[in-house]
Amino acid sequence: MRYQLKNETVKFTKGRIALRCVLLAVLLALVPVAYFLPSALVKGEAANYYSEKLFPIISMLPISISGMFMTSLTEMFVVVGSVSVLVLGFMFLIKCVSLCHNRSLRHMFHFIYLVLRAVLIIGIIGALVFELMLGLNYNRTSVRRQMHLYSEEVRPYEDYSDTLMWAYAGMVEARKALGEDYNGVAHMSTSFETMVYDANLAVSTVDHYYDLGLSVNYIRAKAVWLSKYWRYTDIVGMYDPFLGEANINTDYLDILHLPLTICHEICHAKGYGSETDCNTIAALSCINSERADFRYAGYYYIFMHLWKTVNDYAEYVGETPASFTSLESFRPVLRDMQAYYSYRDSFDDGPIAEFISYFSEDANNAFLESNGQQGGTQTYVVPQDVYVEYYCRYVRNYA
User: What is the pLDDT of residues 146-165, one digit of tens each?
Assistant: First the structure.
């Protein structure tokens, strides 16, 4: 039997049908192979060499292309792509029904074969691009090991307490340098574009000082226009490995978290996959920045992560922990915190909002686990002793 499709004569034989089924099975098997095999093979020093030497070259082209546009290409492709998938899916069904009705069932199966083959090939290419732009970077040596931010023995309570006081002092000092609105709440000091430029500078400075092996490429982080709706996913930033683009939720320019978010996503685009590593670099970049609002966010992040730990440690050893909430210098910070939580309380609640939040959390957790990040979304939390080790090794010893 023969039929004409796009001016090509195609023979239907059992051998050809079997061959096509085998080809689809092979292509289907190659998708997970392309996703998991490179990360399984490239580890240790090979991963470090790739991330430090090859990744900056490979990522240069997509980063340069996305950097030419002020708006988020990721957002555009997600919106347009979602609509296109629905339209193409509907057209696919119509085409299948038309071929089955007007020609034969075999014509329909051949069309389905062509579509599946194209989709699987795109999937293989996408998996390889993902590995090159992000997956392999999960395997590089952690920032903690590179900077020796660990100790063979548990540090005494005094080291934890001193670190907390250091973070508090840096936080309130930076807060004093910031202006306030009529509610007494501090906000970011410059435009978003300037924030991104200064975040690149801060990350590059920390990279140069501690030799972390980040890419030298400039990362033009993008504000997402649909941040008002994106906020329901509880995701404040996202790195798109296919475009090399850092996307930032700007629904609320929160001075307590925004600088770290920008630096965090820039770190992904500069060659680090681990969420723990990116948060570590982001915090260090902020506290070492020349901008007071960046330093404020960095010290606030460290202070808030250490506060409960130090209180628990004090109770364990029978010490009296320092009290901060009653201090006059802490009141401006409390106002900023209250403004942030008021923003969070403004979110619409309901079953749809809860579903979106839970779904995004589960999806993100599964994504991180699939890339070897044990603990999933818990890897966003940097172990508290990392900050204690940083203070003891790099601040106190050189003060």
Answer: 999 988 888 999 999 999 99
Nearest 5°: phi and psi at 3?
Answer: -150, 160
149, 279 contact by CB (below 8 A): no
Structure tokens at 280: 């570590």
* 8 A C-beta contact, residue 256 and residue 229: no
Tokens of 138: 């999960």
* pTM for this predicted structure: 0.90
Among 335, 286, 313, 254, smallest CA distance to 167 is for: 286
Q: How many helices (H) and strands (E) does the chain have?
A: 16, 5
Contacts made by residues 199-203, CB under 8 angstroms, sequence distance 24+: 199/259, 199/262, 199/263, 199/266, 199/285, 199/294, 200/266, 201/289, 202/263, 202/285, 202/286, 202/288, 202/289, 202/291, 202/294, 203/263, 203/266, 203/267, 203/270, 203/281, 203/282, 203/285
187 near 253, Cβ under 8 Å? yes
- Cα separation of 113 and 158, whole Å? 68
